[in-house]
Amino acid sequence: MRSAVYQTLAERPANETFVMTNALCVGASREREAWNQVVDLAIARNVPLIPIVLAADIEENARRVQQADRIGRKLADSQVLKEAMATDRIQEPDVAELLVLDVTRLEPDAAAAAIRQHLTRLDASDLEPAGIGHRQFRNEHLTFLN
């Protein structure tokens, strides 16, 4: 399904912007492949790819995943989240345009404003199309100790 959707998106005009949301870990091959598909789409369209990571401390994140609107759609088990984050971490592509935004204490409107400000600060004329650099992650070789 994802491949068919991405193929359709690849055929859209380069001036159309897409927002894609994911929570993808570095250590999960399936999640690395999912990110690679996003990168491939941007490369095929010859457009910039601006990754934005919304981070929160583990206790706040655990509280949020239990919200009723997530059940049946997304991870909703805080223990599973804590176990996963003890041994892995969210992908942070190692590119200059990356924004890692700590939303632990931010209201949604403030987070949206910070993202908008980041996008405004980026000079569109200086942005390069996505490339293989988007497949590299910051601190990719971190070791996790329990």
Automatic annotation (TrEMBL):
Question: Which InterPro entries did the record assign?
Answer: P-loop_NTPase
Q: Give the superkingdom in one word.
A: Bacteria
Q: Which Gene3D superfamilies match?
A: P-loop containing nucleotide triphosphate hydrolases
> What name does this protein carry?
Uncharacterized protein
Which source organism?
Devosia yakushimensis
Q: Lineage of the source organism? A: Bacteria, Pseudomonadati, Pseudomonadota, Alphaproteobacteria, Hyphomicrobiales
